[in-house]
Design brief:
- The complex is a heterodimer.
- Chain A is α+β, with helices and mostly antiparallel strands.
- In chain A, about 25% of the residues lie in helices and about 20% in strands.
- A four-stranded mixed β-sheet of chain A has the order 9-2-11-10. Chain A has a three-stranded antiparallel β-sheet with strand order 1-5-6, with no helix packed on it. In chain A, strands 3-4 form a two-stranded antiparallel sheet.
- In chain A, helix 7 packs parallel to helix 8.
- Classes of the chains: A alpha+beta, B alpha+beta.
- At the A-B interface, strand 1, helix 1, helix 4 and helix 5 of A face strand 1, strand 4 and helix 2 of B.
């Protein structure tokens, strides 16, 4: 069987640079999810399970069409159903395909302490390398979308891979292929952005949905999964999509200045010991003071 | 200071060790991917059996079909070249692999007798036998030779036939011939919708 590799743009907790970036022409891949044409059929959920080889787990009915409350380590793709009251008092069902957003500036990768456990390929896909994962779960604290999930059996973290095994061979992700209404699209980031803006304009001008817009949050430098929403001013209505997601400041400080301050302190300690040795020499034991004691 | 061979080697060693400690790493910046599981699989075109839309599907099978090998289905997905669905599938169709692999699927005929509260297993021979006997009995009892106006109609209104969307043209031709021979007028196919 063929084994393929992909060049890396970013790598977690890696000493030294990840020289993948700008080595070759970078084409960012992107998923476009048009929530206005989603019918909530869950074909993407099933296609995801089938492709990734996870068997279905028993679920509990919870007065909602939603399969389960949250994505799990072996259920990476979940349609979130949300009843939403319009301004005129009528009810609508907002449906959003929830999965890894593949941020351009991934918080999980920033927070990860294991060398090479989280990588970002040059095509923008953020992927977990389970053989390097130590199962600490720090990626959860770094993720603004609450996506990485812990597998208690193998003690590793799992999430959507954007079907990197398919994408690297020129196929589209399994969820995209299955979507019967065509609300899912796949292509380069530029093309998807164009398509999304065109659709949002169409919704605003032809359908009178004035607040329609494209969700591509700048707080994480844009994402590899973008949405067309009916109401861009209120993404929280779509099952808790954060309005302005960003990597938590704690993670930023901890992995940025705090790390270097720590390193400097350690280096200073070493330097101090060396200087002390050079200036005062080795410690000599006062023989008189310890007279009579056993060595 | 003159650079002697000894000092040069010493410096190179210490420097190299220091740089390695500080994290200079020549590991190539690539990551291994999960292999494409359908890379060497046989692609077989088929039709989804569930509803009347009859979406085209691709069934991926591993095993090279050598004499002593039993191939194994590993994946099913939509057929992009099929004019109806162009690669897409509904959730039920997307789970088609389970139709072949799931250990909980129905493998033998079952019957639920009148008044019974459960299904019981039945042998194929017995099932076919019972169906044949009932068909004969019901047809004999309810066959209408002439309508109230006295015209010859030769029909059997108490039996009906229903087919599925995976029934082929040839199969349907035979079904219609057989059922018409029995005098059936109520014939329906789910693919008609």
């Amino acid at each position: 069987m063929s084994q393929s590799t992909l060049a890396i743009r970013r790598i977690s907790a890696h000493a030294g640079a990840a020289p993948g970036e700008n080595v070759e022409r970078d084409e960012l891949v992107c998923k476009l999810i048009d929530t206005t044409t989603c019918i909530g059929c869950k074909a993407c959920e099933v296609a995801c399970l089938e492709w990734n080889g996870y068997t279905f787990t028993e679920t509990v009915f919870d007065n909602s069409y939603q399969t389960m409350p949250e994505t799990t380590w072996n259920y990476w793709n979940l349609i979130k159903f949300n009843e939403h009251e319009r301004e005129d008092g009528s009810i609508t069902l907002l449906m959003r395909k929830d999965q890894c957003m593949h941020c351009a500036d991934p918080g999980c990768l920033a927070a990860c302490p294991a060398d090479g456990a989280i990588v970002q390929y040059t095509n923008g896909i953020v992927d977990f390398q389970q053989q390097n994962c130590i199962g600490c779960g720090y990626c959860v604290s770094g993720c603004p979308f609450d996506i990485p999930k812990f597998n208690p059996t193998t003690k590793k973290m799992f999430k959507c891979t954007l079907c990197v095994d398919r994408v690297s061979e020129g196929l589209e992700p399994a969820c995209i292929k299955s979507c019967p209404t065509g609300c899912l699209h796949f292509g380069t980031k530029d093309d998807m952005k164009d398509l999304a803006e065109t659709r949002a304009k169409q919704l605003r001008e032809n359908y009178g949905i004035e607040k329609a817009g494209v969700y591509d949050p700048a707080g994480v430098n844009g994402t590899g999964v973008i949405y067309v929403l009916h109401d861009i001013t209120n993404p929280e209505a779509y099952g808790g999509l954060p309005k302005n997601p960003h990597v938590p400041w704690v993670v930023r400080i901890w992995k940025g200045p705090a790390k270097w301050i720590g390193n400097l302190a350690m280096l200073g300690g070493l330097l101090g010991v060396t200087l002390h040795y050079l200036r005062y020499g080795p410690k000599e034991i006062d023989a008189e003071k310890h007279e009579g004691e056993k060595p | 200071m003159e650079l002697s061979r000894r000092n040069f080697l010493r410096g190179a060693l210490v420097g190299g060790a220091g740089i390695s400690l500080l994290g200079f790493d020549l590991t190539p910046a690539v990551a291994q991917l999960k292999e494409l599981k359908i890379a060497r699989a046989t692609e077989t075109r088929s039709t989804c059996p569930y509803c009347s839309v009859s979406c085209g599907v691709l069934i991926y099978t591993i095993g090279d079909k050598a004499k002593n090998v039993t191939p194994q289905v590993i994946h099913v997905e939509g057929d992009p070249d099929h004019p109806i669905n162009r690669g897409t599938l509904c959730p039920k169709g997307a789970s088609l692999e389970q139709d072949i692999l799931n250990p909980r699927r129905l493998l033998k005929p079952q019957v639920r007798r009148p008044g019974s509260d459960h299904w019981e297993d039945i042998a194929w021979t017995q099932a076919i036998d019972e169906i044949a006997h009932r068909t004969k009995k019901i047809r004999d009892e309810t066959f209408i030779e002439k309508d109230p106006q006295g015209r010859t109609v030769n029909r059997c209104e108490s039996l009906a036939w229903i087919g599925g969307c995976t029934d082929t043209n040839e199969f349907n031709y035979l079904v219609v011939k057989t059922m018409r021979a029995l005098g059936l007028t109520y014939m329906e196919n789910q693919a008609r919708v």
